[in-house]
Specification:
With 535 residues, the protein is mostly beta strands. It has helices spanning 340-343, 379-393, 452-467, 502-505, 513-517, 519-527; strands at 24-27, 32-35, 54-59, 67-85, 94-102, 112-113, 133-134, 138-152, 164-169, 173-174, 223-224, 289-290, 356-357, 362-367, 403-405, 411-413, 435-440, 476-480, 493-497, 499-501. Strand 15 and strand 16 form a beta hairpin. Helix 3 (452-467) packs across helix 6.
């Protein structure tokens, strides 16, 4: 990573604006700076019941180079929190713990650790001058107070410069109105999105081919009413395919059943790391990002690439994302996917157009490392908060993951650009240029267990996404690492499963022990999925 002062501008030659112009208020004596991303007060909105997403920060100032602390402090309401610092090239070695106060009850939480497994993408997006280093964000639910302690690890280690807490209020949106339309998504945003084939009242289970719920029902931080989405985008309904009625939006189950051993087709033996390759790469990697969207998603060779064919380079985003390829005639119908418009993405945050790969060679599975204490009605608000954190705190152009899945098995569109197109994401450092990223909401390292519905949804989504490129979800692929990841060195040939965990590519605990151990079963379920090519 180049020094902050010399980082490159964005690939289109323009530096992305920093969205901190809506009003800055310094609260005397507390070192608190409150920033409204979208403007307006706590309940401000256009009069339709919506409330804008807001971000505010608390500076972690102090003279001790190894330690920062923030005593219990009241603040504006927030639901997601993380730590960030000035230069993303400075890695943080140490611990950061926070505790928060519930807005509804005044109860303080226990101390919670923040994870520091985030790296800015290895593309030009990660080299922008306003990119910050940051922790993984933690979903805590509506809160109005915070306490923090940050300690560097080691005698020679200092905390990074300009350390601060970043807090996000996900706001409330009205579906169909959104926070800025469908900017940057292009016409491909909804093409290929099949309608559900079964009623969402049925409990998701191992035999269900896809999630069938629409955007979850409203809550104080969620989307309500109406419909949205780009051209061809069809939010799932509570009627079977073919119904002409306009049903009320269903509320997904808030307490999904944990999978029982021996009854879940995604269960399998725990994943074993693939290990270091036996030799240096002899060719160059597949999947180089393209400056123009591919003209067709139909593969010419149904077998996955196993040998790198070209040197990875930073992708150049297209300036015209409207050239949407039609899905292949043999491509399966997509699983039900909740569009960005339907979960309330604030498209005004996204300043640059999406960039595209030539091909999706692999899917990396992640977890958000936040909390499992959420209802599925919270899912849109969680994703809105992550979008704001990734753009406003990390300084990325858009949300990092290509897709999200929640514990009820609902699939959500992540980064804009078209769910059926090979959109370059920011999720797996060193391998973004070849892959799509799917993140399961929740923490699966510290006791959380993925539900059967969530595992089946990941399997179906991976089968469909890889199938668009003729890639077998049960195969392996050899890719060349585009950066030093702690697992692979730059230029090293990495032999990976086409459905891999984040830790297979980057030195991290993500996607958590229990989700990682479920990957063999997920790969098997993907191979048998009705969304897989040829099934």
């Amino acid at each position: 990573m180049s020094p902050r002062g010399t980082r490159a501008r964005r690939a289109n030659g323009k530096k992305r604006a920093v969205w901190l112009a809506a009003g800055v208020v310094v609260l005397g004596g507390t070192g608190v700076t409150a920033v409204a991303v979208s403007g307006g007060g706590e309940d401000a909105g256009p009069g339709d019941g919506s409330r804008p997403v807001k971000a505010h920060v608390l500076a972690l100032d102090g003279k001790d180079p190894k330690r920062r602390a923030l005593p219990r402090t009241e603040t504006q309401t927030f639901s997601l929190i993380g730590v960030s610092w000035e230069d993303s090239g400075d890695t943080f070695e140490g611990t950061a713990q926070i505790r928060t106060r519930k807005a509804a009850t005044g109860e303080w939480s226990e101390w919670r650790d923040l994870d520091f497994d985030v790296r800015a993408p290895e593309s030009a997006e990660g080299d922008a001058s306003d990119v910050r280093g940051a922790s993984e964000p933690l979903w805590v639910g509506p809160s109005d107070g915070v306490e923090a302690r940050v300690v560097a690890d080691g005698k020679e280690t200092a905390v990074p410069n300009a350390l601060r807490l970043d807090m996000i209020d996900p706001g409330k949106t009205v579906k169909g109105k959104g926070n800025g339309g469908d900017k940057g998504s292009g016409k491909g945003n909804g093409k290929g999105n099949g309608k559900p084939t079964a009623s969402p009242d049925a409990t998701p289970g191992p035999s269900d081919p896809a999630p069938t719920t629409a955007a979850p029902s409203a809550d104080p931080g969620d989307t309500t009413g109406g419909s949205g989405g780009g051209e061809g985008s069809q939010p799932p309904t509570d009627e079977p395919t073919g119904s002409a009625s306009a049903p009320e939006e269903p509320a997904p189950s808030t307490a999904p059943t944990e999978s029982a051993p021996g009854t879940d087709p995604t269960e399998g033996t725990p994943d074993e790391p693939t290990g270091a390759p036996t030799g240096a790469p002899t060719d160059e990697p597949t999947g180089r990002p393209s400056a123009e969207p591919p003209t067709s998603e139909a593969p010419t060779d149904p077998s996955p690439s196993t040998v790198p064919t070209q040197e990875p380079t930073g992708p150049a985003p297209t300036t015209d994302p409207s050239g949407t390829p039609e899905p292949s005639a043999t491509a399966p119908t997509a699983p039900a996917i909740v569009s960005r418009a339907d979960w309330g993405a604030d498209e005004s945050l996204v300043q640059d157009p999406p960039a595209y790969l030539n091909k999706v060679d692999a899917v990396f599975v992640h977890h958000t490392a936040g909390t499992n204490d959420y209802t599925c009605a919270d899912s849109p608000a969680i994703i809105r908060a992550i979008l704001t954190f990734h753009v406003q705190t990390n300084g990325w152009n858009d949300i990092g993951y290509n897709f999200f899945v929640d514990k009820c098995g609902t699939v959500f569109e992540g980064r804009a650009g078209g769910v059926d197109r090979p959109v370059l994401g920011a999720h797996t450092y060193g391998f973004n240029s070849y892959s799509s990223g799917i993140s399961l909401l929740g923490d699966y390292e510290n006791g959380g267990t993925p539900t059967a519905a969530a595992k089946q949804a990941i399997a179906d989504l991976a089968a469909w996404k890889l199938g668009l490129h003729g890639v077998d979800p049960e195969a392996k692929v050899t890719l060349t690492a585009a950066a030093d990841t702690g697992v692979w060195t730059k230029g090293q040939a990495a032999t990976l499963n086409t459905v891999s965990g984040h830790r297979d590519g980057y030195a991290t605990l993500c996607p958590g022990a229990s989700l990682y151990s479920a990957l063999p079963g997920i790969r098997s379920a993907a191979g048998n999925s009705p969304y897989a090519t040829g099934n």
